[in-house]
């Protein structure tokens, strides 16, 4: 395997493990992230894991690229480990066309029924490859191949918070109202970001997620409890 | 007792910022922080604060703030008009780049910011606000930071940390900060190999203009299109302040402090850290060009810049009384051998 170092100015560089989005490549990213977090070299600011590369951020006043890259190479030479398995979350989702306005159209494009799309979406365990786009936005995969569609040609200006969405072989839950180009197929009543929680961001890179279908009444109940601060997200952790 | 700056008028876009919220980008949390970190650091130095203390970043038109405290020292750095209203007297202009001691009931009006996108105001001791994830930077897009993560609003009361406010005379910077001039320096990459040779040549020789879509997240640049080798899309990877990404239309976007933590467009280059304050000060219509340097050179330039900033801060000196003689400077330069008559209102030195 060839590892590439690419420059992001004089405060950061990427350690690239490949060009593709897959679990094996991402495991190498998460492994290096964990090692550098456990034993940060002086002047390391933080590391940011993405699909197939780790962004290493450093302070060019107290250290330099040469020193930090040497520390990264030493960490890489330390031999592979198996990163601890991430947490497993069971996220409720209501696949109601009112809450997932693209559900019917996407089903038509795929030659499936809305029920089949929902069932397929809920049929697998997803892996959180990385967070990005907005605080708490998790890029999760892999979506069943039957649901693989490119992003919408016309992105929406406003996607409601909690929208459960798919694009390509990925799925996500929008933590915030924001613009977005993914297909909206349902909604999750649990906030993926809540400033009132000690850890405001629910998911972390490396976590696993299962979506569990709930009906509209259950959705409304959880949403109400969550907005009143009476919903403990720990209850979503699988035993 | 409690002490506040009360927002009498909010201005157009004033936010609390420090030097950024690092350490949470793996959760998708943007760094945010002052667009012009040099201005914030110098403003803090003028009021005796640690350089990274949170202050107000003022864009466009500043707020009016009433002092609801016995007194407070403030300093502004940047191209912004300041006026003071005291005891119902006619508003008096205040100079930037020095500290001023304000008294209870004073109203400080921060005017238009003209000549750069932002200016900074620091208060002695900083604000007694609760950090969010270790930082007082405001990320407006997701409402993260003090004041619910939003710009100042009328009636806001900004609590002052008077206990932490250092005492001392009013002081000034001998000169406004020197940001340098010429092309913005960049390190090519991380995806320079996604662009044609012609695109790299164009990027390093053409003049670009900051378009109308310019905010704390980034600047859309207008100029000759940059052609990709193949697709503009890459698997999303990490971004930094200063990343220059190029979507399929070939028009570069220079990312600033509120940038997303990751993005899926190829990035042709990254502005070096010593030039980020210059980039953060750019406004729509401004022209800019780029010059490539190696990483080691960028690091050396940044270290020299830090030495220069330390020098400016060492040069901070007590403000000479209006019309008086600058004794500090005279003694410092060892020019006086005899006695001096200080004539109030006199403007020239009587000897030498």
TrEMBL record, chain A:
SMART domains associated with the record: AHS1
Xref: InterPro entries: CT_C_D, Cyclophilin-like_dom_sf, PxpB
Highest taxon of the lineage: Bacteria
Gene3D superfamilies: 3.30.1360.40, Cyclophilin-like
GO molecular function: 5-oxoprolinase (ATP-hydrolyzing) activity
Key words, A-Z: ATP-binding, Hydrolase, Nucleotide-binding
Ranges where the Carboxyltransferase domain occurs: 3-203
Enzyme class: hydrolase
EC number: 3.5.2.9
Protein name in the entry: 5-oxoprolinase subunit PxpB
Species per Swiss-Prot/TrEMBL record: Azospirillum melinis
High-level lineage: Bacteria, Pseudomonadati, Pseudomonadota, Alphaproteobacteria, Rhodospirillales
Gene assigned in the entry: pxpB
TrEMBL record, chain B:
Leader sequence residues: none
InterPro entries, per database record: CT_A_B, Cyclophilin-like_dom_sf, PxpC
Recorded superkingdom: Bacteria
Keywords assigned by UniProt, alphabetized: ATP-binding, Hydrolase, Nucleotide-binding
Residue ranges of every copy of the Carboxyltransferase domain listed in the record: 26-308
NCBIfam families from the UniProt entry: urea_amlyse_rel
Gene3D superfamilies: Cyclophilin-like
Name of this protein: 5-oxoprolinase/urea amidolyase family protein
